[in-house]
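Hi F.,

I've been meaning to write this up properly since the lab meeting, where we talked about keeping a consistent format for the predictions we share between groups. The idea is simple: the sequence comes first, exactly as it goes in, then the structure tokens exactly as they come out, then a line or two of notes. No screenshots and no reformatting. I'm using this chain as the first example so we have something concrete to point to.
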Amino acid sequence: MGKEHVGDPVAENVKGFLVDGRFLLGMEQGISSTYLFLDPQLDPVLVGYVTLAFDSVRLTNAEKRQMDELFGIAKFGALRIQMIGIDHRHQGLGYGTDLLRAVTGLARKLSSDVALRFVLADANVRKIKWYEAEGFVANRAERERNRTDPERSVSMRLDLLDALVDPESEDRALLVAALE
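Output, unedited:
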């Protein structure tokens, strides 16, 4: 997988997911979709992929109470990034960021048609800063904090509502007021 990711079990899993065809079962069962990321200027060449599925976000009890008070619901739909990977020969060229932004753009588009509030990802611990740069934060729910593999991956989420407008802006206040 990557430059070389020897000793990185998460990177090896991402590589194997596509190479070994583990993405096929989810597609056959209608529970996930895998998209290939091609660069048409390179012949075209496969530079990466992403597998997506619908899910719901796990909130802390305090977040659930707050959401229930504001909106009358405590569960919110999410688009889960099950796997995302860029071929090691194309890493460091911005393709990963382009692919992640394409996913969040798709999520924003979908959110106008279906109840979708969050994008979820199990981030390789080596990529946490990369996700944070795109607006993701660590999930705070106890179940996510007490995962069995915290040395390998961290559950992260992007709140699409927060990503649409600056939290301090008047637009945000108007948007929240309109939703109430």
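Notes:
The beta strands are 33-39, 45-56, 77-86, 118-124, 137-138, 153-159.
The chain has a mean pLDDT of 79.

If this format works for you, I'll send the rest the same way.

G.
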